[in-house]
Amino acid sequence: MSNSMYGRSILDLTEMTQAEFLSVIKLATEIKANPNEYRHALSGKILAMIFEKNSTRTRVSFEAGIIQLGGQAIVLDSKSTQMGRGEPIKDTAKVMSGYVDGIMIRTYSDTMVAELATEASIPVINGLTDNHHPCQILADFLTIYEVKGKLKGIKLAYVGAGNNMAHSFLIGGSLVGMDISIATPTGYEPKQEIIDIAEQNALQSGSKIELINDPERAVADADVVVTDVWASMGEESQQLEREKLFAAYQINSELVSKAKDDYLFLHCLPAHRGEEVTSNVIDGTHSKIYQEAENRLHAQKALMVKLMKDS
Ligand code: CP
Ligand code: NVA
């Protein structure tokens, strides 16, 4: 069977059709159930991993994933490469394309990653940028699918900052027909260009997209309740200011009492207990954060097979 995603880059979820997105989720469930059947799937392939921001899950799950598929990883801290001394992205992309079979990058600038993907002749995977975190959405939607048995028609409430996670929930949710309700403080809404993409997707998928400032309204009757840190990597200087501004957006027992009785709590992690979520919610029975984190491994293995395996 031909693989339509072979050789492509995934910088954000606009680069997948609904069918392609669902095919990655389906392959992830197969790989999770039968990992041994895929242990040679990427035999001899090498993934370079470039980090300009910290990571635990992305670093370990991508490296473990490529090893489990029969390949190998080379992990680079961008500061210790010539990129860190200002070597042009174009030269880096062309040189790396001659050595390895794929690049996973975690950095700040989406423009830089786009240039890397344009200039490289191998797939580039976004492992988090200021505006997107597509691999996390693959893992989150795999988790929702495992627990709820479907994606279409699920109501997902995201309460917090209109950041990379909010953006990726908007694009991914609207791609698969989820209803996405996002509550942020005024001034911290998702970017309008991302909202426009989600509204356009929703015309096809039937999603309902809601952008509001009221967390209770967002969480009302939600199947899935999600949050993220109030200050993302690169925004550390705003931490104290945001702790005050976001206090009413904490996910706590009172807020989740508005969700469905069998709601599911997700958080991409790392989390700040007592800030964006209380311990009794994140460590409670509705929380699936560790299943979600494990699913980074399975979802990314599926993505790498789709992008890096030629048959
Ligand atoms: N969720 C996530 O991307 O975790 P890391 O920052 O640890 O990679
Ligand atoms: N929004 C967070 C996600 C961390 C995985 C950040 O960008 O820091």
Give structural notes.
This protein has 311 residues and is α/β, with parallel strands linked by helices. The chain folds into 2 domains: 18-133 and 295-308, Rossmann fold; 137-292, 3-Layer(aba) Sandwich (Rossmann fold). It is 41% helix and 14% strand. It has helices spanning 18-33, 57-68, 89-97, 110-119, 134-148, 164-176, 192-205, 215-219, 239-245, 253-256, 279-282, 289-308, and strands at residues 46-51, 72-77, 102-106, 124-126, 155-159, 179-183, 209-212, 224-227, 264-267. Helix 2 (57-68) packs across helix 12 (289-308) and helix 5 packs across helix 6 (164-176). It starts with 17 loop residues before the first helix and ends with a helix. The structure holds phosphoric acid mono(formamide)ester (CP) and norvaline (NVA). Residues 128, 163-165, 228-229, 232-233, 268 line the site of norvaline. Carbamoyl phosphate binds at residues 55-58, 82, 106, 133-136, 268-269, 296. Residues 152-305 form the Aspartate/ornithine carbamoyltransferase Asp/Orn-binding domain.
The proportion of residues forming helix, as a percent range, comes to: 40-55%
Measured by DSSP, the beta-strand proportion falls in 5-15%
Low-confidence stretches: none
CATH architecture of the largest domain: 3-Layer(aba) Sandwich
Subcellular location: Cytoplasm
Domain Aspartate/ornithine carbamoyltransferase Asp/Orn-binding: 152-305
Domain Aspartate/ornithine carbamoyltransferase carbamoyl-P binding: 8-146
Main location: cytoplasm
How are the SSEs ordered, and which strands pair?
Elements: H1 18-33, E1 46-51, H2 57-68, E2 72-77, H3 89-97, E3 102-106, H4 110-119, E4 124-126, H5 134-148, E5 155-159, H6 164-176, E6 179-183, H7 192-205, E7 209-212, H8 215-219, E8 224-227, H9 239-245, H10 253-256, E9 264-267, H11 279-282, H12 289-308
Parallel strand pairs: 1-2, 1-3, 3-4, 5-6, 5-8, 6-7, 8-9
